[in-house]
Amino acid sequence: MQGTSGQVEFVPLPPRFAERVRWGSVVVGCSMIAAMVLLVALTAFLESLAHGHALPASLIGKAEAVLPPLGVLGIAVLVLSARRCLRGDYLVVATAATARTALVFTYALTLVLILGLFAVSIVFRVRPDLLTTVATFAFATLGYVAGMFFVRPSVQTLRKFSDHPIW
Fold first, then answer.
1. Mean pLDDT, contiguous 10-residue spans, the chain (167 residues)
2. 112 secondary structure, DSSP code
3. Distance CA 40, CA 17 (A)
4. Which residue, among 156, 133, 111, has the nearest Cα to 43 in the 3D structure?
5. Residues 68/110, Cβ–Cβ less than 8 Å
6. DSSP string for residues in 2-43
């Protein structure tokens, strides 16, 4: 089921799954970007209504409002780039491994930012923004899971999408 073309190792994918990766990565990545932009805009709007300014006054509050959404945008870009792991209906193993490593690193960094800035804001008695914190965590987790689905499909998933019983 695996093959080699020159120096590139690849794994054949069911055509329906390869098509799902092609358009699914675009849909999920663009949706994550749009959702994070809307979340930051909503948070800024609510802050301006409640406190008269769009971003919190403290540096910690500003970091908490900006850095975790940037991590989610990084995950969204990686999900968008999952298409690079395909060559026709084949998964390029080296590219997929690099994408998985980047997804794990970006997800871990985003979680550290979310939890770290949330803890720091509590310690320094800065009012943490729970809406942004919970929504950012949810978007980061969904993006990570979707990205892993695209670049590391399970055998069960491949069987589900397969037209032929080769899996």
1. 61 88 95 94 86 77 86 96 92 92 96 90 79 91 94 82 65
2. H
3. 33
4. 133
5. yes
6. -EEETTEEEEE--HHHHHHHHHHHHHHHHHHHHHHHHHHHHH
In total, the chain counts a number of residues equal to 167
Q: Collapsing DSSP states into helix, strand and coil, what is residue 53?
A: coil
- pTM of the full predicted structure? 0.85
Q: Is 48 helix (H, G, I), strand (E, B) or coil?
A: helix
**Which SS3 state, helix, strand or coil, does residue 129 take?**
coil
The tokens describing 35, both together, are 């959702």
Distance of alpha carbon 141 from the chain centroid: 7
CB–CB of 136/66 below 8 Å? Answer: no
What's the farthest any 2 CA atoms get from each other in the chain?
62
